[in-house]
Amino acid sequence: MSKRENIVVSKEDLKKQQVFTEKVRKILEDRYKDTMPMAHVHSYGCQQNISDGEKIKGMLALMGYGFTNSTSDADLVIYNTCAIRENAEDRVFGNVGALKHIKKKNPNMIIGLCGCMMQQKHIVEKLKKSFPYVDLIFGTHVVHELPQNIYNALTMDKRVFNVPDSDGVIVEDLPIKRDGTIKAWVPIMYGCNNFCTYCIVPYVRGRERSREPELILNEIKQLISEGYKEITLLGQNVNSYGKGLDEEITFSELLRRINALDGDFRIRFMTSHPKDATKELIDTIAECDKVCNHLHLPVQSGSDRILKLMNRHYNREQYMELINYAKAKIPDLSFTSDIIVGFPTETEEDFKGTIDLIKEVEYDSLFTFIYSKRVGTKAAEMEDPITNKEKSERFQYLLDVQKDIGVEKYKKYVGKTVRVLVDGEGKSGEDYLTGRTDNFIIVDFKGDKSLIGQFVDVEITQALNWALLGKICE
Predict the structure, then answer these.
(1) Which of 251, 335, 366, 396 is most buried, judging by how many CB atoms fall within 10 Å of its CB?
(2) Residue 85: other Cβ atoms inside 10 A
């Protein structure tokens, strides 16, 4: 049996879960009679977690659960957790603590925790000792075993723990209950091989493994037929797509195949690791009309010393070479990035390097974070002499610099006409709609709600520091 066959969950294993799905449905029908049991599912963190949450809801729907936004009304609560930063973990513990009183009123309520936090042994031990009313804990590699886990939680008079050590699996054909009807997430690969020193992801998501291209294309064709207008391809490092597959295929080739599909839709992707981003990728964005003119390329720091400590495998010069090539090839390409402030031993000079890089690139927007120590990573063992006050001051200064850059960039859109995918009601006032351009910029404008889900042309009339305002072209 090949290594790849080992990581793809078999149809026989999935059929076994279907049997448990029917068993759970029967138990719920007998227990709740003429009412439908309600589930509350909340996913924290990244888009991959959101995608996993949609699969969890898909399986629960087949078991007979309805859904509620209120934990007080729920017979089952599942928190799909994130381990990327400490404050994400703190939120989970706080919300689980709040469930204690709800469960006292409804002792039959099942509380389940899954996701990346559950792949950390010290977290599971804390939950075992301090949160005895949590009934079910399962890891990232056994989401497909949810029916069996729920069956055990319903029938066994003990807590259920299912967190196996694993390099990761690929599961196809799980039911999905998507959160929206306009935008859809499509994982193309899972896991990460990079082991950046600050990041817990390789330890909780396993090694890199790619889905078969034909299965990805079939899923996207189905989404297009259902009217979805924006498809976001997901992976911890999409530029590694294709490794381990029998067919030789790169991420750029996959983008071209998706771009060739019929339909009026657009393609996004995240995340793109700079060490594997190539000029071929930039050429593909330029040549594919459905691929958005937006590149999220997380740099994390503008200091070569810090980048080396982070184990990022590129330097500032290499990063800027790709950025400058992209600017020359696609003049209207927008750039976003991730920045970590206060990485262990970061000096004022290192931080200045980051500020200088931000000014040189002129990002449209940034996702910024103060360094968060993650147990189990190499950075957690590094000396960290920087005070919280210094980190906060640097963080605020960075935000101010980026705000000024963003305002100036947004002003350049005033008077121009942009194509916007309308995805909801806006925050700018009554009768306002909101959407994004293909280069990821928020646009608010007045319009009828019937336009939600459609592409419209909008003339930009005003630039704010977080969005553009405009009016629909007649």
Answers:
(1) 251
(2) 17
